[in-house]
Design goal:
Blueprint (H helix, E strand, L loop, with lengths): L1 H37 L12 E5 L6 H17 L3 E5 L6 H8 L7 E5 L21 E17 L7 H10 L5 E4 L5 H13 L4 E4 L3 H10 L4 E5 H9 L3 E6 L14 H4 L7 E9 L4 H15 L2 H9 L2 E3 L4 H22 L5
Parallel strand pairs: 1-2, 1-3, 5-6, 5-7
Antiparallel strand pairs: 3-9, 4-7, 4-8, 4-9, 4-10
């Protein structure tokens, strides 16, 4: 009997020892196992090939600069080659259509500018839909807009300009960088809010509009602050208001249009990243998270501030709502302004 108890005790000790060893082994490998279980299946192998960011403009502009900053950051963070490809033309539709077509695996992304939500309203047969055809990733930044007039125009405030325009309907003009651009629709939105008649004068790009603006051959322009700031600092132009909902850091004394005239008035050039619709949600979350870390760095903020760009950063859901709201807003402006789709 004693022998059986001794044998039984030995067996229990051996069993407990084995359990202890198993527990130790489990504790050793558990963190790895837990991480493997927590990692989403679709994102587990992502990225497994080169990442591409498509820009719908030629190199050098703010959209291109943002894209290259993000590509550099993703290459480091995801340990995968990331490049920028410029595909200008067709009012952006060449780039938009290109990104909408590839397999929705997150390896091809698009820099989506403000005109992204405007384009379909200007075409009888749109080749893309900014909401239905794309999966929003992150609204990275915003190029803020400012309402300016020539220094020679005898107005100091937005209300001065409105009063002058009402005294001489269809005498004052506003410039844009082309029909259907944010600058054009910003001017049309101002006309609708102010109840004034202004003559629209389209130009081919900001570099073309600025000489006529400085010379006083056109009377008003709502455009990106990065191209206007040097002329404001030189006293050749006068800023009446910014077109964002909050004051711009580089023009702290200039009020917003929302403050002084039209509550909720906002025109800007959001710079975001989207992928093809159907891209797995966990891949979108991975990209959103890594891009969020890139744009949160002080260096990124400093480099964006140097070109007049405000860093934003959103969740995919918040960016989806912003795209939907912008699409609906510009559709109403196009219709109210009587701009006919071509």
């Amino acid at each position: 009997m004693a022998h059986r108890q001794s044998t039984s005790s030995a067996s229990r000790r051996e069993f407990i020892a084995i359990l202890g060893s198993a527990a130790a082994m489990q504790s050793l490998f558990w963190p790895l196992a837990a991480r493997a279980q927590q990692r989403p299946a679709a994102a587990a192998g992502f990225p497994n090939k080169m990442l591409r960011i498509i820009v719908p403009f030629t190199p050098g502009g703010s959209n291109d600069v943002v894209a290259r900053e993000i590509a550099t950051g993703l290459q480091v963070r995801l340990n995968q080659t990331a490049i920028v490809e410029n595909k200008p033309g067709g009012g952006g539709t060449i780039a938009y259509s290109f990104v909408a077509k590839p397999p929705p695996d997150g390896h091809t992304m698009l820099i989506a500018p403000a005109s992204f939500t405007i384009g379909p309203h200007l075409s009888r047969n749109p080749v893309y839909h900014p909401v239905a055809d794309f999966a929003p990733i992150n609204l990275v930044a915003d190029v803020q807009f400012v309402m300016v007039v020539p220094a020679s125009l005898p107005v100091r405030t937005v209300n001065d300009f409105i009063e002058l325009a009402k005294k001489s309907p269809n005498k004052l003009s506003f410039g844009s960088v082309g029909v259907g651009t944010p600058q054009h629709l910003g001017g049309e939105l101002f006309k609708l809010h102010a109840g004034v008649d202004l003559v629209h004068v389209p130009f081919r790009g900001a570099t073309a509009v600025l000489p006529d603006l400085v010379a006083g051959r056109i009377d008003m322009f709502i455009g990106a602050i990065n191209s206007l700031l040097p002329l404001l600092q030189e006293g050749k132009l006068r800023a009446l208001a910014t077109a964002s909902l909050k004051r711009v850091a580089s023009l702290p004394d200039v009020p917003t249009l929302s403050e002084v005239a039209f509550p909720g008035f906002e025109v800007g050039s959001g710079v975001g990243l989207v992928a093809a619709a159907g891209t797995p949600a966990d891949i979108i979350e991975t990209l959103n998270r890594e891009i969020g870390k890139i744009i949160a760095t002080p260096g990124f903020h400093d480099r964006m501030a140097a070109i007049g760009v405000e860093v934003v950063g959103t969740t995919p859901a918040a960016y989806a709502k912003a795209l939907k709201d912008e699409y609906e807003k510009w559709g109403k402006v196009v219709a109210a302004a009587g701009i006919k789709p071509e």
